[in-house]
Specification:
Strand content: 5-15%
Largest sheet: 7 strands, mixed
CATH architecture of one domain: 3-Layer(aba) Sandwich
Shape: rod-shaped
Structural class: alpha/beta
CATH topology of one domain: Rossmann fold
Number of helices: 12
CATH class of one domain: Alpha Beta
Distance between the termini: 144 Å
Strand order of the largest sheet: 6-5-4-7-8-11-10
Order of helices and strands: EEEHHHEHEHEEHEHEHEEHHHH
């Protein structure tokens, strides 16, 4: 049937994806097509979380390892990661209840560390399997059906369980009733970031898409939603720790009041009190060493990636510089050709200038020759002028001139003398 309201009570839900609504009030994704009957009991005859689910559906449909392989890998990875955070907020001995304990590896590890831990599962087959595998106490059936006294538990753990609960507020309220005054929740669940849009997740092939499992995940919580949920059940202090799979999970502690982490020395002292605790401490130290080495490896890989990027950038720069050098060489070749062309033009102009200078020299020589001729002519003219002056003077002093004046015939002679004087100028 189609679900039209959120766990928080909001009934005006917005479309988000083909399978989920988005609640504007708290930021939770709500499954659209709701199971007809909320799953509370499993008879291991094909139901969700039955024997077939763990032995067939998980490996065949989702590609997960079989349950035994998963238990083996979880012990050295996520179980130690969760235990390390649990130790920071509550030292053993303490009473711990894990809802949805699965293969039981975390309950077993907590027991070794000195906690009085027990699990809870819906499948009778899985309860029997985990009891036999790890020799741990595991309850069977929903939490609401368990005869557990109030104020009897120090920590309630839910690892990848909250998103499966049909009534998360009701179940958390029941769990809160079991917790002692200083008890708290330790929870891992998918982390729906409210800035996500479905189209963007699909376009990016975001890892969070793996959490869209309509058969299993009824609610996908935002951080705002889990704060509201636990505030409603009286646990207003919510502190987010780094999740082991931070790209799609959140991991947090919820308590009635603020808590301070335990010192490493106190954790070590608590673990060294028991044989199992010392083994757990060695495993934790080994994991920390492994994480340190992994961090060093990742740092080296990051450095290698950085240097590789730098080399690629340098190669790109070298290629660009080579192209620029080739371009400059082509420009230099063009300029050299232009220079040679100009030199040829200059040579032609120099030849023309030399030709003009030769012509000028010839003209200068001709001018000098003409000037010499003019000087000779000028000298001759001067001589002629002197001779004419002498001739005119001689005429004026001659008897004929005196005689002509007496005879009053001197006008013609005067005219002749005037002409001679003009010639002498």
């Amino acid at each position: 049937m189609e679900r039209k309201h959120c766990w928080c009570g909001e009934r005006h839900l917005e479309p988000f994806s083909p399978d989920y609504w988005r609640c504007p009030a708290c930021g939770t994704l709500v499954l659209r097509e709701w199971p007809d009957e909320p799953l509370t009991e499993v008879a291991d005859q094909g139901e969700l979380y039955s024997k077939d689910y763990y032995l067939k559906r998980l490996p065949e449909q989702y590609g997960y390892p079989d349950l035994l392989s998963r238990a083996r890998s979880d012990l050295s990875e996520r179980v130690l990661y969760w235990l390390n955070v649990l130790l920071r907020y509550r030292l053993p001995p303490a009473d711990v209840l894990e809802l949805g304990s699965g293969h039981g590896g975390f309950v077993a590890m907590m027991t070794e560390a000195g906690y009085r831990a027990q699990g809870l599962e819906l499948s009778p087959w899985l309860v029997a399997w985990s009891r036999e595998l790890f020799h741990i106490p595991v309850l069977q059936g929903p939490l609401e059906h368990q005869n557990l006294p109030p104020n009897s538990v120090d920590v309630v753990v839910l690892m990848d369980v909250l998103e499966h609960l049909p009534d998360p507020e009701g179940t958390m309220r029941r769990a809160a009733n079991l917790l002692r005054p200083h008890g708290f929740f330790l929870i891992q669940t998918p982390d729906f970031r409210e800035e996500y849009e479905y189209q963007d997740l699909v376009a990016q092939q975001h890892p969070f898409l793996q959490q869209f499992k309509p058969e299993q995940h009824l609610f996908l919580f935002s951080r705002r939603a889990v704060r509201l949920l636990f505030e409603r059940v009286g646990f207003s202090w919510v502190h987010f720790e780094p999740a082991i799979f931070a790209h799609y999970d959140m991991f947090f502690v919820a308590a009635r009041q603020s808590m301070s982490p335990n010192a490493p020395e106190a954790i070590s002292e608590a673990l060294e009190r028991t044989r199992g605790g010392r083994i757990v401490e060695s495993l934790l130290n080994l994991r920390m060493h492994h994480l340190s080495m992994e961090g060093d490896r990742q740092e080296k890989e990051a450095q290698i990636a950085y240097l590789t990027t730098m080399v690629e950038e340098r190669n790109t720069q070298i290629a660009q510089l080579s192209a620029a050098v080739q371009e400059r060489e082509a420009q230099i070749a063009q300029l050299s050709a232009a220079v040679q062309e100009r030199e040829a033009q200059i040579a032609q102009l120099s030849a023309a200038v030399q030709e003009r200078e030769a012509q000028i020299a010839q003209l200068s020589a001709a001018v000098q020759e003409r000037e010499a001729q003019i000087a000779q002519l000028t000298s001759l003219l001067y001589q002629y002028q002197q001779q004419v002056r002498l001739l005119a003077a001689a005429i004026r002093q001659s008897r004929l001139f005196r005689w002509a004046r007496r005879l009053r015939r001197w006008q013609g002679i005067e005219y002749l003398l005037a002409s001679l004087e003009n010639l002498s100028k």
